[in-house]
Amino acid sequence: MRHVIFVVPEGMDDPLRVSGGNVYDREVRDGLRRRGWTVDVREVAPGGVATAFADATGLVLVDGLCAAGAPEAVEDAAGPVVVLAHMVTASFPGVTSAAIEAERRALAAAHRVIATSRWTAAELERSGIPAARVAVAPPGTHAASLAAAQGRELLCVGVIAPHKGQDVLLDALAELRGDDWTCVLVGSPAPAPAFARQIARDASAFGGRVRMTGVLTGAALADEYARSAVVVAPSRVESAGMAIADARARGIPVIAADVGGIADTVSGGGAILVRPGDPAALAHALGEWMTDPALRDRLRREAAGVRAALPSWDDTIDLIEAALS
């Protein structure tokens, strides 16, 4: 009863493929194992999901990206299947109706669905998945030291891709007066190389004030958080926002697009939300933050004050365990 096959996209532990989904999946794998579960991880490339299900007669937990790519594997599974839905396909711009229908089939065939935010759960319900079959397990946080930076260092963490909105951030930065700020973009360029190359070209126009680091993990990423005074999340699509949660754990204020589940992630204060995809709105918020010491102080106090109430990864695993059980 405490054995699960966990089907995930290939490269879950690849340091060059860091994403919020991969981090969440690793935390689930490691958390369940710490609690005595046998977790048989099966990493699959696109098109290989059916093979991962071939001899699965017991409980299967499958990442939503894999399930959406092979709904027939979920429909034909010999045992119960739980889909871990990080996002809803229809939320992404330009997605095809075939992709939406494939995901709907997979979710409809699952015995249970775990959503990583209340917003995702609501989107699932709107797409026809009964609320009674959906559990919500928001990403947790690890204990981290309170950040003390009080300058004008901006940090944006996420894969360099259109849905993360780094182009919106650079357009907003171009509207700011003065040059007493720096910005660091952390994330892999691999998912959208053409977009990432354009971001690199646009970043170079700021004369060194915008720095792109590529993927960072561990101490190197922690150092960037420690140096940052505010985390900026200009996403066009976001279920919860892992980087935002990491900022919250450190008491770092957040300026973010009011999209998806971000409002839930920053509940409690310490954040400014702006219209998504709107460089002018983001520039206005950044300008206020940079020029108003009282605003900065208030946001820092609020961000520090919410740290004790943040969910831990143990809390997340409690919810995952309950859904699997």
Automatic annotation (TrEMBL):
<dbReference type="Pfam" id="PF13692">
    <property type="entry name" value="Glyco_trans_1_4"/>
</dbReference>
<dbReference type="InterPro" id="IPR028098">
    <property type="entry name" value="Glyco_trans_4-like_N"/>
</dbReference>
<feature type="domain" description="Glycosyltransferase subfamily 4-like N-terminal">
    <location>
        <begin position="80"/>
        <end position="141"/>
    </location>
</feature>
<keyword id="KW-0328">Glycosyltransferase</keyword>
<dbReference type="GO" id="GO:0016757">
    <property type="term" value="F:glycosyltransferase activity"/>
</dbReference>
<protein>
    <submittedName>
        <fullName>Glycosyltransferase family 4 protein</fullName>
        <ecNumber>2.4.-.-</ecNumber>
    </submittedName>
</protein>
<keyword id="KW-0808">Transferase</keyword>
<dbReference type="Pfam" id="PF13439">
    <property type="entry name" value="Glyco_transf_4"/>
</dbReference>
